[in-house]
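Notebook, student rotation project (T.W.).
Task set for the rotation: take a protein with a known small-molecule partner, predict the structure of the complex, and write up what can be learned from the model alone. Partner molecule chosen: zinc ion. Sequence and SMILES entered below by T.W., checked by me.
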Amino acid sequence: MASLVVKAEWTILQTGGRQVPVRGVALVIDGNRIAEITETPPSDVQTIEVKGGIALPGFVNLHNHTINAPLFRGIVDDLPRSAVGESKVYSMLMPIGALAVSHLDPDELEALVSLGLLEVMKSGATTMVDQFRPRQTCILELARAWGLRLYGAPYLFSPVASIGDATVAQAASGSFEGETGLDAFNQLFDRFDQGPRGLQRVILGPHAADSCAPQLLESVNRLALARDLLVTIHLAQSQGEVDRVRRERNMGCVDYMESTGLLREGVIFAHGVHLTEEELRRVHGAGARLAHCPTVFLRGGKAPHYAHFARQGLAVGIGTDAERMDIFSQMRASGFASKQATGASQAATAADLLRAATVNGADAIRRPDLGRIEVGATADIVIVDANKPHLQPINDPIRTLVWYATAGDIDTVIVDGKPVIRSGAALGLDEAAIIRRGAGATRKAWDEARKRGHFPPEAEPIRT
Ligand SMILES: [Zn+2]
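Predicted structure of the complex:
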């Protein structure tokens, strides 16, 4: 029984293992499934039609921290290394993130997370893997209320005594008051996890290789295998992390993961920027997945790129890591970085990058029903309005999407068969109020960060 018809001028269909633009077809949706793809859809069913639009599978944002986008917007950009030391993550980002969760009252924290989540909702990501502090429960509540597909990974850290590096230990304890977070994980899992095909999942999110000791990672692995859950962890995101793992565990990052059981299918490593080529090949060979987040590194002067990972056989997914939660800009940045690094304009094509942001991300979370538009797939669909001067004329719709479109061009977002964005606006939400309240809460967290010395002078705005 058809419940919705979705029609655009072009639709990016999954056919024969490839994404192919097809003109003039409509998608007939039954509940949350694509039941039929046809040129003659039923006329007596609710229809969403975007004339001149391009329908594509919803993006899978494979690695994100929603709260961080508003929280660090305009304060971490352009920062010299001298202002933040070896690890911006531990010296600035984590302390401010912890502060936002501990200092803001529940309404303010919800306002901050709502601002970030509204940006995600309007980015075309219909699925997101997000790591957050367990007290930030509101992200799960908001995702449920707004109908978003969220794989939430509450952070886990080892107790301070088992973390060798003082800066890392301090950042971990500031986040957690010495708990590993496993109790909180269990509570959130019982309360929010909706099972293998549910909209909201609670998965395991140990923080990183240098903030989690073997005992915790082994517990995580056992729990994940017992409950058939995904695990995601930051890996080799800085040279400092690689050096700390070498010093404290006497091995490389991939060896360390293997020693705890986590070098396997069902594990998503975020970044892998400082893994060697041999380590990348081992990640691929073991069936683990990599979330590639280009702009958060490009902003700091490093250039991980799609072609680098593809050369070692990895089918990376794309994450935003909260630096501008716009998947279009991530695909483009990785593509440009690939071309620049290899000197080859055919490196990282639009087709490669769109597949990374959709199919590869879906496969990484064991959801072959997502990231594709085909009969039987779950109806997570985005329609870009291509009636824009920067998107016309169209030669190849996939190139138009990847090289020229932005999140601001999105007209419609459908998650699990239900529209959540129409005509570019979030249905049922007061966007202006969300923006106003979220910005206010963010400024309050910034003021407190200034008082506590987490806000480097270089982050202050230029004043006359
Ligand atoms: Zn991250």
